[in-house]
Amino acid sequence: MTPVHFSFTSAFVLGFMGLAFNRMHLLSALLCLEGMMLSLYIMMALWALKLDSMTFSAVPILLLAFSACEASAGLALLVATSRTHGTDHLRALNLLRC
Predict the structure, then answer these.
(1) Domains of the chain from N-terminus onward
(2) At what angle do helices 59-85 and 26-51 cross, to 10 degrees?
(3) How is residue 23 annotated by DSSP?
(4) Is 46 within 8 Å of 4 (Cβ atoms)?
């Protein structure tokens, strides 16, 4: 494994571990998701460049579009929950109390 691949794989794993173990704020969970998507985007772009094929060149752009949609939906949920619950703590979000 090259150092470049190792660094982006470790960035993805660190984002996943931050998402799994740091469950205090919704904003920190969204930032961990964005870090994971950014490392996936860079890995897919490097993979498309390594294969040197035109069929795989659209995959990173498609992933980036889905990442932007995920970020906008996450920020909309963050604003909605902070308005209704008054905080962005994940402990305040209880599905049984809706």
Answers:
(1) 1-92 (1.10.287.3510)
(2) 180
(3) -
(4) yes
Calculate the dihedral angle through the C-alpha atoms of 82, 23, 33, 84, rounding to the nearest 10 degrees.
-10
Q: Helix, strand or coil for residue 47? A: helix
Mean pLDDT of the region 24-35: 89
List beta partners, residue 89. 25
Q: Identify whether the C-beta of residue 85 lies closer than 8 Å to the C-beta of residue 92.
A: yes
Which pLDDT value is given to residue 38? Answer: 92
- Dump pLDDT digits (tens) for 43-96: 988 888 888 878 888 888 999 999 999 999 999 988 988 898 888 887 777 766
